[in-house]
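Might I ask for a little of your time on a matter of protein folding? Here, with my thanks, is the record as I have it:
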Amino acid sequence: MTTLVRGSQTLTRDALTVLQPGFTGTTAPDWLLRRIGEGLSSVGLFGRNIVSPEQLAALTARLRAEGDDVLVAIDEEGGDVTRLEVRHGSSFPGNHVLGSVDDVDLTRAVARELGRRLAECGVDFNWAPSADVNSNAENPVIGVRSFGADPELVARHTVAYVEGLQAVGVAACTKHFPGHGDTNVDSHHALPRIDVDLDTLHARELVPFRAAIAAGTKAVMSAHILLSALDPDRPATLSPQILTGLLRQELGFEGLIVTDGMEMRAIASAYGIERGSVLAIAAGADAICVGGGLADEDTVLRLRDALVDAVRTGELPEERLADAAARVRALASWTQAHRVRGAKSEPGAAVQEGTAPGTEIGLVAARRALTVTTGERHTPMTGAPYVAAFTPVVNFAVGDETPWGVAAELERLLPGTATGSYDTSSVDAVLAAAGERRIVAVVRDAHRHPWMTEALDALLAVRPDTVVVEMGLNGSEPRGALHIATHGAARVCGRAAAEAIAGV
């Protein structure tokens, strides 16, 4: 009888160990602390949990008071996808900025400084970098989150990013395996499908992942996408052929396999999060990411019980769940060892040139990435302009909480700058609001939004001295008196563009 009870406790603990849930609020709720005591080994943080570095450090310290080896994970890509600076915009450019510069030393330095700031706040697991090859310019969810469309470029910068993060003890999670770049559907909303042959997948999608594995990435995140050449029936997250056959056996990855958010509709709508989680662990995943949308105790208990029941009914081998839990604990031990070493080091001993506190490595990268094209009508900006931001609906990964654009930075350089946000192709309101002011038109992925292109055409026909700033993929021909491509919408990208507009 004692053996059965101990076995039941072990099974329940393993089921909790493989979950990476989120929660609401800026302090740890009692239920979360209690579950850590029962075996929960990971917690995921989102923008809703973060107010300041000091608050975040206090939060992570409280979590570790319940378990000193708890993995604290975050989705901090820099650029458009930021949680550390969700309310102000990121101090770090996104991947496309870094890929546009194509200096791997710069990418490594940016990732190292980002990792240092995470570690300083007690975060030791970053669901980044994106290793997706953005081969489809119409991709609605990757775009500037990718280093670019060339597999070799993406591979070398993915490696540099992984090295930068892990040099300061923050585990990298290379995503979205086996590649989300050639999709025109956002897996937050539906199941994307990629119908290319195996040769194409190996020559394109898999190149950065092979490189990241060789570089020692501690984790890989699966994508909720259907690749018919690998598995015509199940998305990658639920596919034994992809997670075990391809990632484990063929590519030789021995680290942690993490799922993308299980409440995303690509999984939740077709399978439900409970069955989806069971199938993911059975397929070879080791950790279940959930909490971007479902962030309560009931979700954790439902998933825990679903895994336990699946073992008891024989649907999920107990050895597979135990192996998954062991991989989670192994990664937690790695990050814990780095924290201990860091605490014993002299202050600043591990900080290298270019990554010290207070440096602006992200702004350096944003400035270097600017592509500035001067038109025939260009004249220097001498007064405070009117900024017209043509605003698309942002994808779920980016969220709509984070400010973007150039208006705030232009106001700092050119006091009196005014601004307005527009989501239609009519420019009458822009012209009325601008009056005699020079206009700066800010767009984001104009090539994907015909209404933006129409708005720019109409605006330039009336006001040819308009400055155009593209803050997404630079997929259209330069236009305007001055055309600036920033390759991303991070706060530092806005600052770099504002400097170019103001001539400073």
Observations:
- The CA atoms of residues 382 and 502 lie 8 Å apart.
- Confidence is low (pLDDT under 50) at residues 1-6, 346-358.
- The first strand starts at residue 19 and ends at 20.
- The first helix runs from residue 2 to 17.
